[in-house]
Amino acid sequence: MRVVLGTGPVGLSLVDELVGRGYAVRVVNRSGRAELPEGSTLVRTDVSDRRALAEVIGDAEVVYNCTHVPYARQTTVLPLIQDSLIDAVGASGARLVTVETLSMYGPSGGAPMTERTPLAATSRKGRVRARMVERYLDSGLPVALGVAADFFGPRTLTSSLGAAVFPPALDGDPVAGFGDIDLPRSYTYVPDLARGLAILGEREEALGRLWHLPVAPALSTRQVHELIGEILGRPIRAYLVDRPTPWGPFDEQFMAEYAELFYWHTEPFVMDDSLFTSTFGWHATPLTEALRTTVEWFVTRKRTVF
């Protein structure tokens, strides 16, 4: 039994991966609504409720924390979820695999980020993430932490390579380009993220540490736009969002919270995945293939929605 907490893009992609690997999968969210594949079941639960969480993970071999919290609520809600997880998972004896972000490191000065990069966050949200990582690793739980860069892929909308890029590209309109789009930048393909999390849940040697999940070699955002243009058969025009101001799907509240992380777009943002790839022998999907699949998903979504 695998239990997946959260039904955002990462959680749903992980459910697909785990079902494909033959596991029984129980999926948990607050709404009780989600489109899931056969082989998985949905349970409505608030994961910050320790008693309720303990009930839904009691028979799990591995628990995957893929919960999503809007930026504005992360500093208050994420520690509550962690409290609940540490208590419930500790009592169950299950392994815990949780998703982390690069915000815990703070600005790197352009140096590639590795698992040895100091947890020197400068943002409020990053400092909370850093404290949570330290607490997980000091908890004594059998836990593996999977770290991802900025997401893209099917189902991924709220991302600098999401709804601000693919839908306007399909319509021939300008796409968002945040900060300096000529700097090298790592992007994590969500199906790769899901596969990496599944592997962490299966391997004993994954426990007790951070792992940078597989990413394709970093290109500039401009080069990524050019690849999308080649897939679509026409050039991509970028509208440069050089400051954290509202644009497209990113409203004023979102960008106000994102401002403290905007350094992600003003210095090279490169994540080194060599520890994972050398340990587990698996690399990220080639970027052109991942972008092509993402374009196809957005085309299908556009037909469905409109």
TrEMBL record:
Domain spans labelled NAD-dependent epimerase/dehydratase: 6-203
Alphabetical list of InterPro entries matching this protein: Epimerase_deHydtase, NAD(P)-bd_dom_sf
Signal peptide: none
Gene3D superfamilies attached to this UniProt entry: NAD(P)-binding Rossmann-like Domain
Protein name: Nucleoside-diphosphate-sugar epimerase
Species of origin: Streptoalloteichus hindustanus
